[in-house]
Amino acid sequence: MLNIYQWSKTDKQTKKMILDRAMFDIASIQDYVSGWIETIQKEGDEAIVKYTRKFDNKDFNLKDLRVKKSDIKKAYKVVEPKVIEVIERQISLSRQNALSKSRQETVLKSFIPGVQVGYKITPIESVGLAVPAGQVPLPSVMQILAVTAKAAGVERVIACFPPTGDYPEMLIAADLAGVDEAYRVGGIAGIVAMAYGTETIKPVLKIAGPGSIYTQAAKMLVFGKVVIDMVAGPSEAVILADAYANPTYCAADILARAEHAPDAAGVLITYSEKLAQETKKEIERQIIYLKRSEIIEKSLNKYSCAIVVKDWQEAIELTNEYSPEHLEILVDDPFAVLPQIKNAGSIFLGNFAPVAVGDYASGTNHILPTGFWSKMASAVSIETFQKSSEVQYITREGLENLEEIVDVVSGIEKLDAHWNSVNVRINKKKRLWDQIKERRVL
User: Fold this and answer.
1) Which residue in 181, 236, 325, 328 is the catalytic one?
2) Distance of CA 374 to the CA centre of its chain
3) How many beta carbons lie within 10 A of that of residue 125, not counting itself?
4) Residue from 282, 326, 328, 366 carrying the catalytic annotation
5) Per the count of CB atoms within 10 A, which of 101, 361, 379, 421 is most buried?
6) Over the stretch 211-233, which tens digit does the pLDDT of each residue have?
7) Structural domains of the chain, ranges and CATH numbers in brackets
8) Is 326 marked active-site?
9) Other CB atoms within 10 Å distance of the CB of residue 262
């Protein structure tokens, strides 16, 4: 059921498939996604309805596109108070974590007399959140994105999710987390609507959120019209384990990733053949009790696997090369391993930190880079929804202290007006660059 690969004996094509995982699929669908982008740009709301009826809800009508206040009130009536209380607690932890990363709005420092330089942080004015809900409701994704955006100070936060079912918990999470507008449209259509706008949906400046390879391909293709957070595709986790790790834990955590989707990835990396074999047996024992076993089996046969390497050092190197969305370190002293980890979206230390806790309860952000993007991107955070402006305050003394640099460099670059904009303020009699040119001639 779980493929076990002896890495030194694995062929190059198989290695590439494992390391590329779902990213491999994105390139093959770009033309298809581009076609839908063009259609939705031209036809607006009409195309939104066409798309949604085709993929999410055959009975969808335009009047259902925007979530109304009455819909939210109804949601509170049908969801049990205990569930609402838990969502509130979840949001409280998420908000505290987001705000812990906040910085001063304006910071100025002086490194030379008369000159203060620094930055001013301001929120992006409008952002759109892509919230998947194709098979099951995901209020955890709704709340973590919205809470973080609002903690950053974003004035207009909209959320788009597919209308594949009656998900009142999604609406409650959106309401409690501060979403200003919610729309029942997902996938490619949701991304295009947020990027370009339709008759009903006003466009935003940045889009963030996870989703299928179609959603991620759409995000990549609308980049330029809007900014995006990163590629956050099908869920994935590496379990980095030594010979003493508990195979029951390893198996459970692989299954937890695999149940997300057929193209999700749960990967064990270890130097212990025994651990790999015992983990495989544990998966076969545990899977029969799980509701989404059919999806899990597809995932286990696609990108999920156990990889056996020659030693611990190679295990570390392969983990960094894989650069997973989630990384569990199952060793007695995970803090000793942590400094060696270069690439991972979110890191879980020790035997009692399964990824599921980060998904739901700890308050850390679980919208993370996938498909080796953790080599160059970070988890969604308050900074995702902010931007930084460079700031400088300069007195006459400061300008005089900097004039020589402007003089010479503007001379090299042949931009005399640059130096002139300084000189009209300080009225220097003779330019240094002219003296340098004179010496060159002599």
Assistant:
1) 325
2) 9
3) 13
4) 326
5) 379
6) 888 999 999 999 999 999 998 88
7) 4-22+234-363 (3.40.50.1980), 26-232+383-388 (3.40.50.1980), 395-441 (1.20.5)
8) yes
9) 17
